[in-house]
What we know:
Low-confidence stretches: none
Shape: globular
Structural class: alpha/beta
Largest sheet: 5 strands, mixed
CATH architecture: 3-Layer(aba) Sandwich
CATH topology: Rossmann fold
Radius of gyration: 18 Å
CATH class: Alpha Beta
Number of helices: 10
Number of domains: 1
Mean pLDDT: 97
Number of strands: 7
Amino acid sequence: QDGHSHLLASTIPNIRTYDPAFAYEIAAILHDGLIRMYRDGEDVFYYITLQNESYPMPSMPESVTKEEILQGLYPFRRALEGRRENHVQLFGSGSILLEVLRAQEILETRFGVSADVWSATSYLLLRRDALATERWNMLHPEAPPRRSFLETQLAGVEEPVIAATDFLKAVPDQIARWVPGGLTSLGTDGYGRSDTREALRRHFEVDAESITVAALYRLARMGRISPTIVTRAITSFGIDPERIDPAIA
């Protein structure tokens, strides 16, 4: 398990880090890198994490722009059957986005909760832009305040956000202060292990079932659903609530 490299890379000022899920995202990032580094001679370099998991590669949705991919966040799939009374936002990166999509289906079909799924290609770039925007606003107190890309993307989003990643929880935590509805990060904190993908994702609690439980728990904390529903979900998914925290296991 490589859970820390994106966090370590965030200490380098001129690096651009990405954790893409699909081929069209990779194509957009590589094209941008060629232009910046080779055509324009910009003093930047890229860190891109890729997986060897085999899964279908969709075409780039017509609603998605290259700039959204490059800046770090875009809506990949809205609620399957429209927005319901209980609604959440799900962020996914890399191959974990597949688990997020599966969680979207579980939430809707089994619990009547709708969810929008977002592809988070770069938490670092989202954070940098948000910090730069805050700095500009602070130094120009009499000017109309600017909005960061993240704030623009999440305009009107008040529901809880669950962010699942193959990396440490601290990676999505980088943007927590700018998420209006609050952010719950699921990641692979803990010692590295060797096992099947399914077993590792269950161990680190980043599989679809764990994402579903996190979403239901946030709704319960908001008083939108009964805590009993969360307990039933935990039981039905075969999750042991007394197991040791994977961060120290």
